[in-house]
Amino acid sequence: MIKEINNGHVRTDYSKGITTIEFYHPQSNALPGKLLEELAHTIHAAANDNDTKVIVLRSDGDRTFCSGAFFDELKSLKNLDESKRFFMGFANLINTMRKCPKFIIGRIQGRCVGGGVGLASAVDYAIATDAAEIKLSELSIGIGPFVIGPAVERKIGAAAFSNIAIDATKWRNADWAKRKGLYAEVHTSVENMDESIKRLADSLSHFNPDAMREMKNMFWKGCENWDELLYYRAGISAKLILGEEAQMALERLREKVS
């Protein structure tokens, strides 16, 4: 099943206990608000599907897993309500992944920027290629990684998180991300990555779903306040993105890519 959204799509495929969810946007797999909403809805549906034992989250294409927030939409935000609604899209998606009782395997085939790093952090087991560099670019556009921060910090630790959040223009390679715990595996080819994902997903599809649900609850212990925390953090981002510094940064970025 495929749903077209804002020139992109969310595609769902099911086979033998494995639900694969794919997202795509022509601008480096960026995430507009409607795509964020549909992605959260699709993961929620798979979470409540009794036939689904494990979820694989992937994006289309081979260069970028996810470039984060859709800059055209960020630039178009006019007031605090619109802005808060946009950033709550990331908050709702991360919380949906956190609450999902099924393990989510992330297929990270390329670069992750900003919210894309948050997405890679929110999966339960990330398998990547050596092309999967990461960068938290939020500070460079006048805001900060407030909404995705708890997910990233949970996965790689406070020190590594603060390092990449402060040095917002520097890429970290996939080996760095693996050493810090973001990626469970890094492969030298897409074929090897996909073989490893298939092996793990097939194994998990035969395991006790009750045991996996309890394990996921255990792994995410201490995050029960994220509904309130991410709502609060979305408010910080929403206010900052409307400020003069952020608007000037977005305009410079728009001119650079146009």
Automatic annotation (TrEMBL):
GO terms for biological process: isoprenoid catabolic process. Transmembrane segments: none annotated. Pfam families: ECH_1. Belongs to the enoyl-CoA hydratase/isomerase family. This is Enoyl-CoA hydratase/isomerase family protein. It comes from Pinibacter aurantiacus.
